[in-house]
Structure formats: C-alpha cells, structure tokens
Amino acid sequence: MDFQVDGQTVFAATGGRPFEAGDDAVVLVHGAGMDHTVWSLQTRDLAHHGLHPLALDLPGHGRSGGGPAASIEDQAAWLLRFLDAAGLARARLAGHSMGALTVLQAAALAPERITGLALLGVAAGMPVHPDLLAAAEANDPLAAELIVGWAYGARGLVGDNPAPGLWMRGGGLRLLLRAAPGVLHRDLAICNAYATAVEAAAKVACPVLLLLGDGDMMTPPRNAAPLAEAMAGSRTRVLADCGHMMMSERPTETAEALRAFLAA
User: Which among 55, 63, 214, 237 is placed 20 to 30 Å from 245, CA to CA?
Assistant: First the structure.
C-alpha cells in the first residue's frame, strides 16, 4: 500500500488485509539497511488476528522514495508525519534495532498519539565500530557480512527455522546488499550518534514491551536495562536461544509476543 509523505511515495505492507485507519492500527519500523520484509510473518499474523498492521519502508529503503534520514530525531518526526498521511491520530508502534530507537523517539515527541510501544533488539546506546562504519561508507560488501556475522544467534547459523528452506544468514546478507548505496552507512551513523534514548524513554506515556534475545551480540539484553528503568510499568521479555534478528530466528514466538501485547 502506498502513501504520500513529504512529496515522496512510501510503501507499507498490510499483511494481506485491507488497511483501515483506527485504534487497532500497528505501525512496524525496520532496522538499519533493511525494509518491511523483515516483518513478513509478524505482519501476516497481526492481520490474521484482527489488527491493521503497516510494515513500512523508511525513506530511501525498499520501495519507498526519498533518502535516508539525517538523524534518529528527524526519522521520528518523519514517522509522525507518516501517521498523519495514514489518517492515524493515534497508533501503536513496533520497531526493531534502529527502528526501535525511531519509535521510541516518536513516542517521546508525541506521547499523546502513541498508545503502545514494542521495542525489539533495543539498547540504551547503539555504538557502531569504526571499521563497520568505514566499510559501509565505502559501500563495501564487508559491512553487510560483518552485520550478518553478529546479528544471528547459534540457531541462525545452522538454518534452524520453521520456514522450510530458509537460510537466515543468506537471506539477511541479500537484504542488506540490496540497499541503495549510502543507505546502510547513513543508518548506522545515526544509530551511532543517537545518545538520548534514556531521556526519550522517560517521556513515554504508554505501555511498553521490550523484546530481546538472550544471545544478541549487537544489543545485549543488559544494555536495555536503563530504558526499562526509565519507563515505569514497562515489561521485558527475553527470548531464549535467540540473537538480534528475532523476527526470523524466533518468528512464532516474536509474533505471539507482539500480538499479545499490541492487542491488549
């Protein structure tokens, strides 16, 4: 489904169900260098169970026009304009990694508009190694290889997944390599520069779920603790035997956790 934001076309997947703007809308935001396809199973699951999901492609990603944002703050402000374009006065948000920082900042900017917040693979800080930043800036495939090498837990390394024939590391590599030149570097750079996640968390006024992987080497669960402490009443769930890419490593558990939280 296409929307118009800032004069650019923005694509969002609906999980196969016609979208209707309302209080049961859920907007899902992907991570650095990725697109809406990372939410494929979860989007379908939410739609099948009566919610109205929009798994969007951020500007310059996937099927959306424009270019990547200059900062997490700018990306969050853009997300609020996307809600306007979708006719959503209020919405629930879910974000993964960079997307988690984005939805967190959006909830801090407009707490009256966000009625639920799911943060997946999140940490209070997301510093990026200089070598990875340099490889991404050079559009070197090494950047994608480094990310994939760290993103998946042990199960992801051997292809253990309910979807037959799904090679998780290979799929993640191809996803990152199809990003337009410069997109991955910009995404990593804005994550590296964002230093106010805890301050943003203190402004959140809605129920919050932190969904983490116990084997996540990119955003270890312990690094999310300051966010949980800043958000009174937030809930944390740690998925066993799971790395950073829980949407594919633990697709069923991730879908069930999101649905139970977002449908409440």
Answer: 63
67: exposed, middle or buried (Cβ count in 10 Å: 0-12, 13-18, 19+): middle
pLDDT recorded at residue 22: 84
Cα 164 to Cα 160: distance, rounded to the nearest angstrom:
9
Task: Look up residue 112 and give its amino acid.
Answer: E
Residue type, position 1, single letter: M
Alpha helix positions (H), the chain: 40-48, 72-85, 98-109, 130-137, 142-151, 154-158, 168-177, 183-193, 197-201, 225-230, 246-249, 251-262
Q: What is the pTM (predicted TM-score) of this model?
A: 0.94
Averaged pLDDT, 222-232: 95
| Torsion angle, alpha carbons of 191, 196, 202, 204, to 10 | -40
